């Protein structure tokens, strides 16, 4: 499972002491080859954490031998010291693994604005390297958790090759990637350009459409590493589909574990004039705090859906809008439709279908409800 | 006080039975002249309530004799029936006041997607007309309350003339106007064009920068009526300042009474390259749910401020950003600044200053914190 499901990878997850509670907080993933191809997608937030700035440079070469990931501190907004710390982390991994530091990606997650305890992190890298194993994927996935209640992994196996991965993220999930660290691995034999295309095609319709609370992180990182160990080169379409499937699975797990949420909400926008319109409308609905509160209260409040659609620039006629909640068309032609009492709101998953009656394009955005628990989790502690 | 502070206006507020709990729910404001000039600003939501569609037409003439306002139902997303109901309301007021229906503006607030009980509303108009008085401003302000805990009025008096007004709004406060109904009156002798300019200049920097929860209503309406009864024509600058002062006062009252809020948050953006940049950054900070939760928890979490700034397209260098919370510069040059423990978060008002170090333009946005009470108020009942 996880990042070691594909051949040609070892991983480890250990407690380095970065987290004060002693939980696992450092993961290492190593590509043992024969190929060392890689691609990465990073946060579009213009305030980027030091490890993002570092790893963006590393990925430009299309070659990654190892990834060091830590929870317990985001190393964001930490100035020149933060960048030096990331650099030192990569150098340490390179030293103990006999690699070039320019092939070591780094990813961090946790509190913004606090420097990392390097006296614990650097020995941690050494310790993790000593524990690398072809069965270490689960431990690595556990070590990157922050407020996640469970660790997240996914695997898809095709004819002789595999794509697997791990993810962490439980809040600050938003477009331009949710607040997530994701490492995907494959033993398929593919070059960096193909990996890059497959990763971008997949994240655009999966992680980029997970929008738990509208907040965009400074640290989002999604990496895809290929070892070539399966000695198989799949067709692009088949490979891209497998990557998308793994991303979709992990994205769904992120929404299912979002901080304080009691509902997973699938916003389907149909009959839009363009995909961009569908995404804009889906995001507007997904970010409407009043609607998210109503859904938490199991109130199929379609008026708040219309109100959210009305703030967009998408093509639609207000008098032709239709909205279904869990399959009941509670709004027809911009006005009262079927009886809202027919909507069954008891289950965790809620499906909102917004029909713009303006074309044939669609998009799906996933979000969560807004709850007192979310407020509590994000007001009671710094995070 | 309120809409009857200026000479040339009568008003009334009564219980018509639209609200099931028997509270006041219908207000009438009448301009007794000699002048009947008026201007209006309406929601920029493309899903507009029937009374907004009606009143936009009325205001095109620049002449308003009376305004009928009801709480207890928004008459939004009610289809052709909704528009007929608004029309009937204006006709009824015109009949009992011997006016032309085309001079009667209508405004509604309450639940979306439910038609109004016209069998109660129309007799209510008659009853309100019978109670019109030059001292009826307070009662009118009370009758337009929905979840407001207090009614809101403001008055500014200058040399021989007055601008007064009333407002309602407690949630769904957002740009393109907060969810609000506002009626302003003046006895200054000014024509509709001047009123329109003064009203737009004022709302742009007041109501339009009140952003409690990022949700934009289908019903927002701000009207300014001039009676000319003071027989004074002030200079434009002086008049515009008085209108802005009244709008600012009412806007501050709206934020202070926002549903479930425990903090009133002033987001000041300074040293922006343009006013548009300052507004974009201010709104992004004001809408960040994670930050709003942190401030509720009295946590001066500047990392979430930087994270919000980073999602904008404003001109700035991440390494030159400075952030103060209640006057303490907790972030300097994009990194850790003064000790966050110096920030005193005990009071209801919180001031966040974001220094973009990119120019000399500024803007201020007002918002609230995100609380469990907000979630409760908006999930426990339809609204």
UniProtKB/TrEMBL annotation, chains A, B:
Keyword field contains Transferase: yes
Enzyme class: transferase
Catalytic residues in the record: 179 (nucleophile)
Pathway, per record: Amino-acid biosynthesis; L-arginine biosynthesis; N(2)-acetyl-L-ornithine from L-glutamate: step 1/4; Amino-acid biosynthesis; L-arginine biosynthesis; L-ornithine and N-acetyl-L-glutamate from L-glutamate and N(2)-acetyl-L-ornithine (cyclic): step 1/1
Catalytic activity, as annotated: L-glutamate + acetyl-CoA = N-acetyl-L-glutamate + CoA + H(+); N(2)-acetyl-L-ornithine + L-glutamate = N-acetyl-L-glutamate + L-ornithine
CDD domains named in the record: OAT
InterPro entries reported in the protein's UniProt record: Arg_biosynth_ArgJ, ArgJ-like_dom_sf, ArgJ_beta_C
Location of this chain's protein in the cell: Cytoplasm
UniProt cross-references to SUPFAM superfamilies, sorted A to Z: DmpA/ArgJ-like
Positions bearing the site annotation: Cleavage: 178-179
Superkingdom: Bacteria
Record's keyword terms, sorted: Acyltransferase, Amino-acid biosynthesis, Arginine biosynthesis, Autocatalytic cleavage, Cytoplasm, Multifunctional enzyme, Transferase
Xref: Pfam families: ArgJ (PF01960)
Residues of the site described as Involved in the stabilization of negative charge on the oxyanion by the formation of the oxyanion hole: 109-110
GO molecular-function terms, A-Z: L-glutamate N-acetyltransferase activity, acting on acetyl-L-ornithine as donor
Residues that bind substrate: 146, 168, 179, 259, 378, 383
Chain's role: Catalyzes two activities which are involved in the cyclic version of arginine biosynthesis: the synthesis of N-acetylglutamate from glutamate and acetyl-CoA as the acetyl donor, and of ornithine by transacetylation between N(2)-acetylornithine and glutamate.
NCBIfam families per the UniProt record, alphabetical: ArgJ, PRK05388.1
Family per record: Belongs to the ArgJ family.
Subunit architecture: Heterotetramer of two alpha and two beta chains.
The protein, known as: Arginine biosynthesis bifunctional protein ArgJ
Species per Swiss-Prot/TrEMBL record: Streptomyces huasconensis
Organism lineage: Bacteria, Bacillati, Actinomycetota, Actinomycetes, Kitasatosporales
The gene coding this protein: argJ
